[in-house]
Amino acid sequence: MRSRLLAASTSAALLTLGLPAFASAQDAPPAPTVDTLQQSVTSLTTAVDSLWVVVGACLVLFMQAGFALLETGLSRSKNAGAVMGKILINMSVAMLMFWISGFALGFGTGNDFLGQHGFFFNATGFPEAVDTVFSASTASVSSLFFFQMAFCAVSLAIVFGSMLDRTKFPAYIAFAVVFCGLIYPIVAHWTWGGGWLFKDGFLDYAGSSIVHLQGALGALAGALVIGPRLGKYRNGKPIPIPGHSIPLAIAGVLILWFGWMGFNGASSLLANGVDFADVLLSTNLAAGAGVLGATLGSLMMFKTIDVSQMGNGAIGGLVAITASCAFIDYWAAVVVGLIAGLLIPIIVVLVERRGIDDPLGALAAHGVSGIWGTLAIGLFGTSARMDPVLVNAVGLDSRSGLLVGGGFGQLWVQFYGIVATMAFTGIACAVLFLAIKYTIGLRVSEEHEANGLDISEHGMFGYPESFIEVPGAQPTSWHSDHPAEPLSEGAASRPATAN
Q1: Which class for 53: exposed (0-12), middle (13-18), buried (19 or more C-beta within 10 A)?
Q2: Are 303 and 160 in the same domain?
Q3: Is the residue at 487 inside a domain?
Q4: Tens-place pLDDT, residues 203-214
């Protein structure tokens, strides 16, 4: 009897435990179909590509910190705070103007010259990708917008490197509105937006010409219109005005180098099926070669190793390889970077001798290096690397660079693409700077320039302890040797005592 009860109880317990599993089996969804599996794969691909593009955009955005340190280090200490303010306002205006009109003109549907759709960008309302950049990627349109917005901000940051220590703060805003909202995106549309240059086969993988050359052209126009800093030339000869902190400047270079991993690496706009590590390897080889080239160039030009020129050599190598990093082999990347580095000190000296005051060497590092890197595709580009774009995307015949068995075809396209960019952006920026000069004003007064932009433009010092008495800032023994001057209402107009 006991054994029967035990058996019955055991059966009931097992049945109770098995009921949920039975019910679950009865309610289980049908086996996934091919369509649902395909949708899952597509969703995963989109998520991975979008994540990579966003990470790349964050790296590019972090380059603003590199520009801030580089420019601060190579400016005088009385202008250090003003540089930081300039970086903040330019970055902010670039983002807003790219949202308002930049993205639409650069990447919206339109004609071969400019886009005409997508003003005040709305990710849910933007049409399916029909242009070059979008059709190559499954990433979300909002991630692509973020990435291109960060690129636009970099191009703007380059412009004012040649105008340090003497530019009015409102002029930054006025120029940024037009440059980011109109000038930069139109040239971007010509290639990355599927415009006329792209249809001709012009290649610029990540922006040697579209981003860096445009920024350098703005820098050249600005430097010519605003004129050199006070004391830069005596009897027609350039006088060195060293920056106040080489450690800050080189730290900025290293941050820019790091940010370039997103700049070039994520320009594939894909994480699946693309060896972006190949692009990153070429990028770093060129940067290293650029440093060595600038070191050798510095020895030849100055009989010494100029650390600031070494930093510019790294930037020059990075700028030069930006256009060609996906289209040339590794050995060619080394050549491209080495030549860019060698050119840096030469161009810096030539620019100074022409009466152009460029404190950062932006014209050499971003301008000449941008031109050289863009032309390098026509010299070293291989058909195996260029065909996926030229043949598959554009429908042109296969091409190779002149020095790797090809003809002049690709080199010619690269050349007139550069000429078109220089003509449009150079003239537009010159007109814009002249308009600013004769309306709101471009340059601060001589008195304000002598006192420093920190106090004259912002009412504060970047390094207050160097210029005014700060209670408790110095040891007690220091005060006995340096009696403090009373801070008066005229402090803002008192000549600076350092740099």
Answers
A1: buried
A2: yes
A3: yes
A4: 999 999 999 999
